[in-house]
Amino acid sequence: MYNGLLHAHSGLRWLLFLFLIIAIIKAFAGWLGKKEYQKADNIIALILLSFTHLMGVIGIVLYFISPNVKSMKEAMSDAFFRFWSMEHGLLMLFAIVLITVGRVKSKKATTDIIKHKTGAIFYTIAFIMILWGGVIQPIILKHSWF
Ligand code: HEM
After folding, report:
1. How far away, in angstroms, is 46 Cα from ligand 1 center?
2. Amino acid 3: pLDDT
3. Mutate which of 10, 18, 62 to test ligand 1's pocket (most atoms within 8 Å of Cβ)?
């Protein structure tokens, strides 16, 4: 079960990343180009939210079964175990909250420009966090370049 979930969690990150990039591009184009908030924008935001939450659920399950998640005492002295036991989960949970809040606030906004602007800001901050904690750091740790 651990291997299957780890592979799913690892592979799904690229889909999440793809939809995050599309959502950001569309949000900025809509905000700066003063465009109407269209059905496609809503669907992309929904797909993004679904992948994000799926990643969160799989991540939480992994947290309880991963051999790389150690007790805080053990994890603190080792950068590899500290990352998987604390930093990764916290950073990704925060990014998931940002994507969720961004989606809810954008949906509730009264004008199309604010809908796009809200998405652009929240998704971009989440993107930076996921790029670091969900893509760059895992690649560095996996290949032990440092
Ligand atoms: C945006 C959300 C997330 C992304 C992009 C992401 C990305 C990743 C990646 C790339 C890996 C490495 C997979 C591999 O070694 O092949 C991983 C593993 C893991 N993630 Fe996440 N993750 C996310 C959310 C979470 C959350 C919310 C938690 C827990 C609260 C979590 C806990 C874990 C754990 C425990 C592992 C396994 C480490 C191991 O056993 O080597 N992840 N994640």
Report:
1. 21
2. 96
3. 62
What's the pTM value of the predicted model, to 2 decimals? Answer: 0.93
Q: Please, is 45 exposed, middle or buried when counting C-beta atoms within 10 Å of its C-beta (0-12, 13-18, 19+)?
A: buried
- Looking at residue 3, its amino acid is N
Report the domain count for the chain.
1
Whether the per-residue pLDDT at 112 is higher than 60: the answer is yes
What is the C-alpha separation between 95 and 30, in angstroms, rounded?
A: 22
Atom of ligand 1 nearest to the CA of 85: 35
Q: What is the mean pLDDT of the chain?
A: 95
Question: What's the pLDDT at 43?
Answer: 97
From ligand 1's centre to the CA of 49, what distance in Å?
17
Q: Show the domain range for 28.
A: 2-143
